[in-house]
Write a structure and sequence with these properties.
The protein has 2 domains: 283 residues, Orthogonal Bundle (ABC transporter involved in vitamin B12 uptake, BtuC); 67 residues. It is built from 17 helices and 2 strands. α4 runs antiparallel to α14, α6 runs antiparallel to α14 and α15 runs parallel beside α17. The protein starts with a helix and ends with a helix. It is a multi-pass membrane protein.
Amino acid sequence: MTKLKDTLKKNTMLVALIIVMALFQVLIMSAGKGSLFAPTNVANLIMQNSYVVILATGMLLCILTGGNIDLSVGSIVALIGAVAGTFIVKWEMNIYLAIVLCLVIGLLVGVWQGFWIAYVNIPPFICTLCGMLIWRGLATIILDGTTISPFPEEYLKYFTSYLPGADASKTVIMSVSLIVGALCCAALVAVTLFGQMQKKRKGYATEAAGLMIGRLVVICAVIMAVFYLLGQSKGIPTVLVLLAVVVFIYQYFTTRTVSGRHIYALGGNMKATQLSGIDTKKVMFGVYVNMAFLSAVAALVCVGRFNSAAPSAGTNYEMDAIGSCFIGGASAYGGVGTVGGAVIGAIFMGVLNNGMSILGIDANWQKVVKGLVLLGAVVFDVVSKKQNKSR
């Protein structure tokens, strides 16, 4: 019973996500407005919130360093989008060269901000606030206040198309979707069992077999249901492949590498981390360079999805990323949080946006609801820490 309570406590937001999805499904069906789980709606949910997952993954690393955030990510999205539009649409540059150059510019933006934060000790809040103004201004200057569109089909296919392709039959689309879903489930089971074996070999505490099996069954059922719904629509969105790669890389980085553990150590206790010989400046520098790089990736996804580059692109994206991390269980004090939690938080935000939009709730009320949800997540974190200290 104790292990069950611990498991539920660790997966509080996952349980909350399931409850919210079920609530919206009931409300949407009662209002006669279709279904939250309509195949087309599921595909749209993935494509509309792809940028949130990418940005939340990078933002998590910033938060882990001690509750720090990056306010400039939305403006970087606008800047890189403006550059991409200029390279690809105006100058008709080779799209692969343009993509590489956009990513390099994103890295340079990160180097600029990381230098001031890590080596000059400018508070991240102030430095990225300045960046928010600088990069937005440059984006508007590059675009001259206008919107650039449309992008060539050769570029759009990497971010807006579906697998196995528009020409495939319904049978092929469903078969490919189910096979990919089954492979994902097999990979999840293999990774989980391998992790359990490693923990046992090293003498660490392991999850109860019954709870582990139950968790895997539930997750695999959800995965297969999602891919089944995608199979009923147009297939697997290509952007989902990109998201899977990003999540896998950063999940591995944060849990299996020394550099990843250094980020957690920095957020847990900076003084102790410095005394242990870890170069905290280098860690902080890398985190903000990485955040700008992922912002550039998100920008390439966004211009593909909207088929345009606009000065207003990326507005409030930083709020979605920050909110996703805190809702997903990241601590406002740093040192606590997971990539999986950030993804759950991003899905939670996406479901809130999508469900309220389907129900026709006013945009201003949507902001109120999201603000209250974010406040509740942070309050939960603060109260939990106080309770743990009092024990």
